[in-house]
Amino acid sequence: MTAHTLRYYEHAELIRPIARNSGNQRRYSAADVEWVTFLLRLRETGMPIAQMREYALLRNEGPATTESRLRLLEAHQVELHNQIARLHTHEKALAKKIATYRDDLAALHAHQQANTPTERDPR
Predict the structure, then answer these.
(1) What is the pLDDT of residues 54-100, one digit of tens each?
(2) What is the rounded distance in angstroms from the CA atom of residue 52 to the CA atom of residue 47?
């Protein structure tokens, strides 16, 4: 993750301000790294930043928001399953089109070979 993304995540309230050392460099704890890794996973699965922010703010409120966080993640999981199903459908269509083009090329090559004049025996 780039420093720019980390700053953006801080600004978007996805991560709390990180402790800094005497040189003003951020010092991430293991828990911070685990949280950022989870955020990246959410983002890579297509969760919008606004929804990630909602989740992060709920998380910051503590255990009283566990049910709300669970519902948010369950809803995202349903959307992810739908997305995976759509991707499988698209992949099958792509595989079919690729097979068609391979068959077309094989037929074209066979036709070209059948119509290529052969060298005559010079004897």
Answers:
(1) 999 999 999 999 999 999 999 999 999 999 999 999 999 999 999 99
(2) 7
CATH number (domain holding residue 28): 1.10.1660.10
Contact 107, 99 (CB under 8 A): no
* Residue 51, helix vs strand vs coil: helix
Write the CA distances from 74 to 15, 44, 45, 69, integer angstroms: 21, 16, 13, 9
82 within domain boundaries: yes
Q: How far apart are the first and last CA of the chain?
A: 73
**pTM given for the model:** 0.76
Instruction: Answer left, alpha or beta for residue 57, where phi above 0 means left and psi between -120 and 50 means alpha.
Output: alpha
Please check whether residue 120 lies inside any domain of the structure: no
Tally the domains of the chain: 1
CB atoms within 10 A of CB 56: 21
Residues of the domain holding 34? 3-114
Residue 55 lies in a domain: yes
